[in-house]
Task: inverse folding
């Protein structure tokens, strides 16, 4: 690419892993156009914050980050150019353009591939502030380079973008557009590129990974994609996230069970178990089907780690319906579980539903589920004491008394616990066999049994 830009760029990525990939792509496009990356916003000529605008708390976090950067810009006498990208910009960019004058440019989710062009416009001296909110139709390919952390052993791989499910509480279709799947061969090529860069674990993501391929001409199956990616030479571990229960198939479960390097880890965001609530959410799945998927998955993979996410406080979630959800949590004994309080989002069908629940009651219900899950998680972890686990080392531990920290196959980054190791030497990116010797509610503690990896001076 022809060098068009100069100066230093700092990127702050908020929200989900899907947003993180967009940040990595924008960083690479800017770098290949001539910019260098700055480690701190204070040292940059341009600061880009890639925002989240999914639910209330995410929007608040994004606005707080923008205002904090605006203060840094003020301290620098306006020398920094501030670019706001991503979901918040897509959803509210035109409105916020006049409300936050410190931001020089707002660009929506459809502009990821044109970031170099937008930065060039800024550097050309254009004084006019803009909000560019186009159709959210960007879909990356393997030919889009990404800026990854130095020595990264784990990387996300986006197999699709957008969503066509139209859950009544969710604004994602309007922010990210309809579901768009990448071609299988393109995904495999990116997986090969990541492994060539030293990545040992690849995590397949999308707004709904189990809807993969339904929009493509020959409708490739997710099970086939899992098989193809897991066959990439040098890939040690493959993980799948965001499996909508309405689209999980026996073929996907069979592939997970049969491939050695695919983690026996199922992220199944059910959101609720009461059929009336599921219907009001437009989840297109029944409680009976959810229970059957869990039964089938655990039957095929007795060592399966099962994760879910729930929404409490949805309109018409009566005490009886909430109790039904609590009973389900107690009986299913998920390995990992996250809970969100319902966020009323303008422009979504659920925003107009009656029988709203107070924020205080939503918080009470969330705390009740999480307290119950804490006991379950501790009991599950205690069953792992004495077991042998393969751990991907992520680096030195900051926890007192432990030398290293990593993740076993049961643990996804950022959302689950980690495994702390007391003894042994290993480098980030190494896989070591460990004996689990203890646990708390969310983390595991262990010792390396076979240290045949390269050494790292600790």
Result:
């Amino acid at each position: 690419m022809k060098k068009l830009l100069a100066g230093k760029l700092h990127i702050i990525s908020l929200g989900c892993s899907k947003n993180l990939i967009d940040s990595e792509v924008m960083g690479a496009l800017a770098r290949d156009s001539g910019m260098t990356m700055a480690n701190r916003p204070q040292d940059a000529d341009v600061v880009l914050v890639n925002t989240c605008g999914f639910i209330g708390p995410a929007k608040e976090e994004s606005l707080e980050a923008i205002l904090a950067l605006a203060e840094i810009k003020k301290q620098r006498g306006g020398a920094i150019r501030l670019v706001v990208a991503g979901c918040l910009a897509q959803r509210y960019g035109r409105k916020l353009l006049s409300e936050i004058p410190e931001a020089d440019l707002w660009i929506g989710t459809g502009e990821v591939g044109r970031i170099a062009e937008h930065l060039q416009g800024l550097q050309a001296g254009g004084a006019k502030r803009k909000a560019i909110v186009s159709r959210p139709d960007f879909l990356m390919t393997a030919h889009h380079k990404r800026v990854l952390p130095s020595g990264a052993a784990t990387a996300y791989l986006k197999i699709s973008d957008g969503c066509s499910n139209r859950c009544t509480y969710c604004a994602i279709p309007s922010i990210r557009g309809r579901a768009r799947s990448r071609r299988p061969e393109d995904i495999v090529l990116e997986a090969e590129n990541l492994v060539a860069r030293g990545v040992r674990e690849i995590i397949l993501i999308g707004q709904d990974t189990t809807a993969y391929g339904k929009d493509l001409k020959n409708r490739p199956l997710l099970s086939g994609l899992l098989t193809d990616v897991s066959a990439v030479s040098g890939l040690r571990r493959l993980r799948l996230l965001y499996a909508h229960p309405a689209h999980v198939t026996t073929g996907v479960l069979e592939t997970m069970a049969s491939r050695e390097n695919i983690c026996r880890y199922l992220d199944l965001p059910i959101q609720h178990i009461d059929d009336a609530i599921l219907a009001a959410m437009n989840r297109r799945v029944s409680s009976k089907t959810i229970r059957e998927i869990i039964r089938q998955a655990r039957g095929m993979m007795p060592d399966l780690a099962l994760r879910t996410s729930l929404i409490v406080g949805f309109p018409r979630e009566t005490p009886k319906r909430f109790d039904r959800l609590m009973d389900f949590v107690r009986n299913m004994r998920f390995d990992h579980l996250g809970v969100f309080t319902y966020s009323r989002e303008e422009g979504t069908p659920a925003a107009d539903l009656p029988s709203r629940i107070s924020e205080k009651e939503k918080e009470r219900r969330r705390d009740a589920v999480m307290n119950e899950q804490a006991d379950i998680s501790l009991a599950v972890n205690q069953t792992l004491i004495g077991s042998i686990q393969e751990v991907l080392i992520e680096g030195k531990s900051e926890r007192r008394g432990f030398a290293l920290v990593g993740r076993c196959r049961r643990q996804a980054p950022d959302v689950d616990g980690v495994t702390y190791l007391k003894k042994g030497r290993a480098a980030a990116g190494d896989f070591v066999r460990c004996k689990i010797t203890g646990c708390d509610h969310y983390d595991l503690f262990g010792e390396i049994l076979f240290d045949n990896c390269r050494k790292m001076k600790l």
Q: What stands out?
A: The longest strand covers residues 388-396. Residues 451-458 have pLDDT under 50 and may be disordered.
